[in-house]
TrEMBL record:
InterPro entries assigned: Histidine_triad_HIT, HIT-like, HIT-like_sf
Listed EC numbers: 2.1.1.-
Alphabetical UniProt keywords: Methyltransferase, Transferase
Motif Histidine triad motif boundaries: 98-102
GO biological process: methylation
Protein known as: HIT family protein
A Pfam family hit: HIT
Keyword Nucleotide-binding (UniProt): no
Gene Ontology molecular function: methyltransferase activity
Length: 135
């Protein structure tokens, strides 16, 4: 049996949270570790670790709510920018094994950074990658 995530415990009201929105599929609440004021997490109610385990309709609803939350955060906090971030598994920077999207208001020089080593493969290599995943 999968151990309950902290988000599942929030959904069950076992842990207090500042809830922004909820429906039968998702819940949105303030991130306890605010990077900037207005930092919200939008999580599935169903505990699933990664995005690829969800059905397409579930992903669509998750991101539709994240979009609504982003618009509300923009109106309430007027940030200079916005980062929506969804991560999968520890190697992909996921820290809670429960699908969620960060809605993170951003400001110049706010200290939040997203860095990775850029590689510049040739167009031939890129076409090979594309062939492997072509839908």
């Amino acid at each position: 049996m999968i151990q309950d995530s902290v988000f599942t415990r929030i959904i069950r009201r076992e842990i207090p949270a500042a809830i922004v929105y909820e429906d039968d599929q998702v819940i949105a609440f303030m991130d306890a570790g605010q990077v900037n004021p207005g930092h919200v997490l939008v999580a599935t109610r169903r505990q699933v670790e990664t995005l690829v385990e969800l059905e397409e309709a579930e992903v669509a609803h998750l991101f539709a709510v994240a979009h609504r939350v982003a618009r509300a955060v923009q109106a309430a906090f007027t940030p200079e920018g916005m980062t929506l971030l969804q991560t999968n598994r520890p190697a992909g920077w996921q820290t809670v094994p429960h699908v969620h999207v960060h809605v993170l208001p951003r400001h110049a020089n706010d200290g939040a950074d997203l860095v990775w080593p850029r590689q510049d493969p040739s167009l031939e290599v890129l076409r090979g990658y594309a062939q492997r995943i072509r839908l």
